Amino acid sequence: MTRRYDRMASLYDIYGAPMEWMGTRRRRRRLIARAEGRVLEVGVGTAKNLRHYPDGVHLSGIDLSKQMLQRASRRARRLGIPIDLGLADVHHLPYPDETFDTTVATCVFCSVADPIGGLRELGRVTKRDGRILLLEHVRPRNRLLGRLADAVTVLTRRIFGFRANRRTEENVTAAGLRVVDIRREGIWREIEAGPSTARLGNATRGRQ
């Protein structure tokens, strides 16, 4: 996975441009506007979200890919927006419990190996009264389209490293997070969640 994204880094924004034009940028802007305080973005990539953060937040970002982080750093310098960037894995975040007021992931949990484990980690590092903001595409609810997404995933996983049939909405609940708000547009979900009032323990692994 890391090598794949290192290879893709130079063309990543070009690959994603059609999706951005078709509404993803608008969704990013709407979701990121909710961020406040000390913010961690996981899977920061080339820092596409950077320009959408409200003034006054303190930003940190992590990614598995050094090449992606280099591009994120260049974008941050170009925009004049400070952000602390680091190489890290969403499954094992290098931060103490309840460090951040807001944690953010956009188009990340379609590609991580253990989405429920990664979501639990977001819950762990988010303050008890904090926000977890997610933008993800998910498996369609329509039976036929869902089966099509299952079939397409064989290719998307092999070529691009992501699954078109992830059930992220269900995984948020399976991870023990508290759902605050969900906006649904077709296959897209804008989710605001919070850590469980009872800190996450050995919750049963859900559907992935």
Order of helices and strands: HHEEHEEHEHHEE
Q: How would you sum up the global shape?
A: globular
Distance between the termini: 18 Å
Strand order of the largest sheet: 3-2-1-4-5-7-6
What is the number of domains? Answer: 1
CATH superfamily: Vaccinia Virus protein VP39
Question: Overall pLDDT, averaged?
Answer: 85
CATH topology: Rossmann fold
Instruction: Evaluate the radius of gyration.
Output: 16 Å
Q: What structural category characterises the helix and strand content? A: alpha/beta
Counted beta strands: 7
Unreliable parts? 200-207
Account of the protein in words:
This protein is an alpha/beta fold and 208 residues long. It has a single domain (2-138, 167-194), classed as Rossmann fold (3-Layer(aba) Sandwich). 37% of the residues lie in helices and 24% in strands. It has six helices and seven strands, in the order ααββαββαβααββ. It has helices at residues 2-8, 12-32, 66-79, 115-125, 143-159, 168-174; strands at 38-42, 58-63, 84-87, 100-106, 126-137, 178-185, 188-194. The chain has a seven-stranded mixed β-sheet with strand order 3-2-1-4-5-7-6, with helices on both faces. The longest helix is centred in the first third of the chain and has 21 residues, at 12-32. The radius of gyration is 16 Å and the shape is globular. Mean pLDDT is 85; it is low at 200-207.
